[in-house]
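Practice problem 4.
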């Protein structure tokens, strides 16, 4: 990537925006938003250019015998800082994922492994809830389908806060657990799995849904073991006819609330489908690096006997399984995934 050419584009656009706002041209709201977003990039470019200039000045001063030692000290100090300044600007210049600043919808489903998989799904759901609390995010349960003995068949939640989707988007995929189930008398290690999907929460402006493309079905909520937990038809299933996508919600006693929640989830899934279609080529390139977010992709193994968590996409292993499951050490995995993604995208731009 030719950094100087990128700098020129940014600085030109920044000056152009300033001139357009001063002249009252265009949509002031959009212009000022873009102007504000470019501000930190312009500051970082200025800091980098100053460092380069200081380094050139120090190098020139090294020719003076009286200033040589002092100039050399300055030269090498700036030279040491330069790669960090360049990387900071490069990261700022990476194409933004428009969904990064959105809230997220989390879905966890039990996979292969029967009741053990359902128990693991419940633990994952709690892990993300604890992580959200530690990050200062709001975690709101949307829908839960439990097994009645501590496990979850499936559950969904809305996570609200700053940069939620940017940090959680790499959690989508198959999470595998290896441990000895409580019901296992022989002490054998069993392997089971749960599927996690993290979707950017979509607003109505993000995705348009035509009412005639929807079919609504109402029915009585079902509890554990098939018992009816509601005597009214409050559960709602919404089917998007063009795609066949169906979403059900029975968490609330109010049919109206369940319908609103189901629509929220449907909108998020349709928005994600649209994003995937637009980014198909990019996702294919990235699949071998950090992962595409494909729900069928095995991304992580939680091995309880060995006390380790391994993320297979970046070959990261932490011997902190309890801390990860409490949400406390999950940031270490998230940070490594974000860094790997940034490195992969920087490599693509070179």
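Answer key:
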């Amino acid at each position: 990537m030719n950094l100087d050419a990128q700098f020129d584009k940014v600085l030109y656009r920044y000056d152009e925006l300033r001139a357009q706002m001063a002249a009252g041209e265009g949509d002031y709201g959009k212009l000022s938003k873009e102007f504000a977003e470019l501000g930190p990039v312009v500051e970082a470019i200025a800091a980098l250019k100053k460092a380069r200039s200081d380094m050139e000045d120090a190098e020139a001063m090294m020719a003076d015998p009286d200033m040589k030692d002092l100039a050399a000290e300055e030269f090498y100090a700036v030279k040491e800082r330069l790669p960090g300044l360049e990387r900071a600007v490069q990261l700022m210049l990476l194409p933004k994922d428009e969904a990064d600043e959105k809230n997220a919808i989390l879905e966890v489903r039990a996979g292969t492994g029967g009741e053990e998989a359902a128990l693991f799904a419940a633990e994952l759901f709690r892990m993300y809830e604890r992580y959200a609390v530690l990050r200062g995010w709001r975690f709101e349960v949307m829908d839960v389908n439990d097994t009645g003995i501590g496990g979850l068949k499936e559950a969904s939640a809305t996570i609200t806060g700053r940069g939620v989707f940017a940090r959680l988007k790499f959690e989508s995929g198959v999470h595998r657990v290896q441990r000895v189930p409580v019901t296992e008398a022989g002490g054998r290690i069993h392997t089971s799995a749960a599927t996690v999907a993290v979707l950017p929460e979509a607003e109505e402006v993000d995705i348009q849904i035509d009412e005639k493309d929807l079919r609504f079905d109402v029915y009585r909520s079902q509890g554990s073991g098939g018992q009816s937990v509601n005597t009214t038809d409050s559960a709602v299933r919404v089917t998007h006819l063009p795609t066949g996508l169906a979403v059900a919600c029975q968490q609330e006693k109010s049919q109206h609330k369940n319908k609103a929640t189901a629509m929220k989830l449907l909108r998020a899934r349709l928005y994600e489908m649209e994003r995937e279609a637009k980014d198909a080529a990019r996702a294919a390139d990235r699949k071998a690096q950090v992962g595409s977010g494909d729900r069928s992709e095995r991304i992580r193994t939680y091995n309880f006997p060995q006390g380790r968590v391994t993320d297979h996409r970046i070959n990261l292993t932490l011997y902190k399984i309890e801390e990860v499951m409490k949400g406390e050490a999950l940031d270490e995995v998230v940070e490594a995934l974000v860094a790997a993604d940034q490195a992969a995208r920087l490599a693509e731009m070179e």
